[in-house]
TrEMBL record:
It comes from Echinostoma caproni. This is RVT_N domain-containing protein. It comes from the Eukaryota.
Amino acid sequence: MQHPKATTKMAGNFGTMNVDLLRSRVAQLAWDDEVPSIEGLWGVIKQSLHILQEEFAPWKPRRHLTKPIWWRAAMNKAIKRRNQSWRLYKISGSRLAWTRYTALRNAAVEMVRTAKRNYELMPAKSAKNHAKKYYGYVKFE
């Protein structure tokens, strides 16, 4: 099971932002009351906020993993063991190597199926109490 490599996107670095300093800078801004329309005033406000966002929350690279949320490291190990067992079977061609390969293959497939099934059942069971989890899952799929 091959996955494409992770992609890199840019996102605002809001975690290290100094909120108190940002609030003081917003309070110092001179909002133009001379703008004739509401749309013009909104444009001024929006532009000022974008400038402050660039200053206080600069862009940083955000790594986007392409593996599913339910994927675990144990699955990677099981798939690597399965592939190694397949290579050994192809080299030797013995019945013992084939039995070992099929056992590892079945275990890896079962592990992936179980993890995916458990992840898909989680939002269904908690949809009423945890609506955010449910709609996050619906958006993800």
